[in-house]
Amino acid sequence: MLKYLEELDLQPVGLAVSKLSRRAFLGTGATFALGVFATRGEAFPKWPTGGEQMPNGLRDDPLIFVSIDPDGTVTLVAHRSEMGTGSRTSLPMVMADEMEADWSRVRIVQAEGDEPKYGNQDTDGSRSMRHHIQAARKIGGSVRHMMQAAAGQEWGVPAEEVVVENHAARHGDKTLGFGELAEVAMALPVPQHDQIAYKSEDQFRYVGKGEVQITDLHDITTGKAVYGADVTVDGMLYAVAARPPVVGGKVLTFDATEAMAVPGVIGVYELPHSIPPAGFAPLGGVAVVAENTWAALQARDRLKIDWEDGPHGGYSSGPFMEAMKATAQDKGNVLRTRGEPAGAFSNASRTFGQTYTQDHMAHIPMEPPVALASVTENGVEIWAPVQSPYTTRTDVAKALEVDPANVRVNVTLLGGGFGRKSKADFVTEAALLSREAGAPVRMQWTREDDIRHCYYHTTSAERIEVALDDAGTVTGWRHNSVAPSILSTFAPDGGHQFHIESGMGHLDMPFDIANVSIENGEAFAHTRIGWFRSVSNIPRAWAIGSFVGDLAAELGKDQREMWLELIGAPRTVDLAAEGYPENFWNYGEPLAEFPIETGRLANVLNVAADGIGYGKDLPDGEAIGLAVHRSFVSYVACAAHVKVQDGKISIPEMHLAIDCGYAANPERIRSQMEGASVMGMTVALNSSITFENGAVEQSNYNDYDVVRSDNFPGSVVTHIIDHPFSVHATGVGEPGVPPVAPAIANGLFLATGQRKRALPMGANV
Amino acid sequence: MTKLMVNGVAREFDGDDSMPLLWALRDSLELPGTKYGCGAGLCGACTVHVDGKAVRACQASVSDVDGKSVTTIEGLDPEGEHRVQQAWRELNVPQCGFCQTGQIMQAAALLEENPKPSDDEILTAMAGNVCRCGCYQRIVQAVRLASTGS
């Protein structure tokens, strides 16, 4: 997401690093003897991705990512943040496999925030595997060739006669391990992509298998894994803060007398407040710094603060929703026109429309925001669970008015992220307080802080109307999406969504309908709007998916038939012919490589439906609902078996089918789909952040609850569509969530006759 | 001065004995495996054993555990090879992993009390432990695996 804000000059653009720097290392004219891996090495044609266009681009130089000890230990750098998707395991696994390293002898170290060195590190947008799998293969393949060449030199035999396998090079009866070859090998010229004989897919030991455990598994299960609040340094202090209840509000006066009297309190500091649009600048407020967390918490309770609420003190989300629904009824700014929608509606035999809504949501990762900062005259050091360590570094540098070169950001494991930890306001708070207190400071957010001071998922009203002919065929489609924009967090609020948000399931409504009008009505933000896992795809999949169920009922059709009829015959969407705007955002990916293929959409729908046995007889009060959605250039369908008993909604079985191109780590793809089923069910039933007088009304799990083990989707089965490597790997972390809520709503309707059109729909009917 | 056994070792705590056990463990006793998730007994991330029973460390004060025996994830098994930990690894349960120490402590206490819980008993016993990543399916499978070996 950040990248696109940067395109709009709303964020400082990171340092551009010339690709010449790597060539310079190689030396001009350096040549590399082509080797042959085993007997069946092969080339793979590189394809462009949005990765090259991200700030600071991609790196595929093994000298940046790989080091090998004399004992043979291979150390691989994970430069993406680990927040639960498994990228810290999966990308090094690809490197190791292509290298022929033995995974049991691989050690993984986490990169600090340094994009000029590592390339883009912004871990969101479901991009880690999609952007970096080619680079990971190149890194591993290069090292394998360098080992081969080093062994050839050592033995005085042609490199192509040397076989590199399982952490060693062999020739006849001679063997040298990676550790023995490392010093010579790693000093050799690094081969280029087209000089590498890559492994064929059937030669992979780990990739595509799903048999590798996540690298932190033992540490996680023994309590040794290090998250944001688990780093300690000598002399560190502990801070919590009271922040303005209303965004844009500020401290008028405060009295810290009682707070200072709490034993263990070191100091009370006012934090500078920010005026929206403030990006990731902290909200301001009053912070307590103490010798331990408990003292800080007690002292915060004893602060007496008078707040000024500012211009958003009148924000109440209930009336705001009613206003958005009214706006959505009318015509909005037209973003895409196909055919002649006005004519289609005026000539229609009849029309049918419904409005679908969603409340704000907060991410609530299990680990609330937390960061440790040490600011001294020698520099700034940060330890934090952040998705964007380099943006964190530049943000902290800006806030402290220091050179980013003097800021080091160490990335811990993230106890969940979901987009919240892309925004490092909490890290900047820690840095400001460390400077004030003259000691390292850990800033700990409580769960209440997290829920009340989030960058919220937007709230929306989505109006969909169709024109129908005499035969009940859809001849026209109008979808007006009304929601405050993420852009408002970064720039003066124009009241409209921008092309990134419109690209998430709104413009790219996939149905083959002759006349289409995609519209965006006005809505202004009154809180900090940010991205939440799957972002605008959640309300769009909710609206479109629920509408398909509504329309099927209206026309007396079966849901699956309705979906397939609307999707139409398999086609690769021709954007120009279908009236897409030129700035259509395809998740940042070149359309030629990542087209919109409706056959893949229909396929996952059929796979999920067949998997669960759609159409089978079920008792009264039970039914299967279907939904499918393309997001992050992947296609995911959800088939939800919904059961209502004593008014309580449960999901005894759910099938998710995902087409994410080549599946590098099927095991973590399954875990992401299982997780998406749970988060999707929470979105469907529970997640509602409401505002009254500008302030959030929820505070903790008591009033912002999530699906728990007593009612989660049981028997989640994941179907992964099998593809060769040539079908580009696409997103996994986010695309599972959007189809879940509409599938549940469609099942609920068939089970009970009750149609829910507002998210969350509540746990009971 | 509060005296307690932590992971089999006699420890003393001379701070404010109204401090929740959670913060004493994390900030004073250098046992960060017990996690802060909500501070209100609603998420289970801070689950430890007090005299063998699962307790939310954010809801027990240091004075509440005076003279008692506290076990944290660091002390569940000296080698980290408790059958629940093994089952967790066997099934690759965690995603982000943050809640997992609390989940494991809750599951271990359940199996101590009820070695062969029914599925419903597992679901109910684990319902106080939130996992935002949504690992519940594997958590339940892992508890069952630790209980029955399958």
TrEMBL record, chain A:
Write down the Pfam families for this protein, in alphabetical order.
MoCoBD_1, MoCoBD_2
The record's annotation in InterPro entries points to: Ald_Oxase/Xan_DH_a/b, AldOxase/xan_DH_MoCoBD1, AldOxase/xan_DH_MoCoBD2, AldOxase/xan_DH_Mopterin-bd_sf, N-heterocyclic_Hydroxylase, OxRdtase_Mopterin-bd_su_IorB
Where's the Aldehyde oxidase/xanthine dehydrogenase a/b hammerhead domain? Answer: 222-311
Please indicate which superkingdom the organism of origin belongs to: Bacteria
Indicate what this protein is called per its UniProt record: Molybdopterin-dependent oxidoreductase
UniProtKB/TrEMBL annotation, chain B:
Q: Which InterPro entries match?
A: 2Fe-2S-bd (IPR002888), 2Fe-2S-bd_dom_sf (IPR036884), 2Fe-2S_ferredoxin-like_sf (IPR036010), 2Fe-2S_ferredoxin-type (IPR001041), 2Fe2S_fd_BS (IPR006058), Beta-grasp_dom_sf (IPR012675), Diverse_Oxidoreductases (IPR051452)
Q: Which PROSITE patterns match?
A: 2FE2S_FER_1, 2FE2S_FER_2
Listed A to Z, the keywords are: 2Fe-2S, Iron, Iron-sulfur, Metal-binding, Oxidoreductase
All copies of the 2Fe-2S ferredoxin-type domain together span: 1-76
Please report the name of this protein according to its UniProt entry.
Answer: (2Fe-2S)-binding protein
